[in-house]
Amino acid sequence: MEELVNYILQFGNLNRQQIDFITGKAKTLELHKDEYFSEAGKIPRSVGFILEGVVRFCYYNNKGEEITHSFVDENNFVSDQQRFEAQVVASEYIQAVTDCKLLVFSKKDWDEIGNTIVGWDAITGLILKNCLLKTIERRSPLVSEDATTRYLSFIEQFPGLVNRIPLSYVASYLGMTQQSLSRIRKNVR
């Protein structure tokens, strides 16, 4: 719970009573590797904060190929926020890449926090902005860099992650085949 509180307090001030109210709404959820936090074709039901583990956002392209477009690891929020807020069907999956432990908030509880705590919308707005900026910072260079540079950038942005997740997901995220990634890894060592 402390990790969640410390994370939130980076984006705004809350008193002890407000913090207790928020933490009182959090439920613990354990996801096993390959289980889904949110699925395409279903309405996202919760917002999560990752205590342990890694999840990925993925979708299937028009050729039926699975594409990983981002990873989220410990001490970060995870949700399909836009579709969660609007309560509309998701178009992508959020899948546990490793066993995960999360603190989760239902839509009802998330709304109750927003309706009770003055300034909560400003805090969550800053959190969302931060998450979007991180995603853009990580994805933008991938468009113009060669494959080796993309892999080296990935290692720099996600230290230690490459040893925790399947290489097929890393390859998909980097826009290359698993064979190409294996060759690059062999040459980089």
TrEMBL record:
Enumerate the spans annotated as Cyclic nucleotide-binding domain: 30-113
Q: What is this protein identified as?
A: Cyclic nucleotide-binding domain protein
Q: Which CDD domains match?
A: CAP_ED (cd00038)
Q: Which InterPro entries match?
A: cNMP-bd_dom (IPR000595), cNMP-bd_dom_sf (IPR018490), RmlC-like_jellyroll (IPR014710)
Q: Which SUPFAM superfamilies match?
A: cAMP-binding domain-like (SSF51206)
Name of a matching Pfam family: cNMP_binding
Organism whose genome encodes this protein: Filimonas zeae
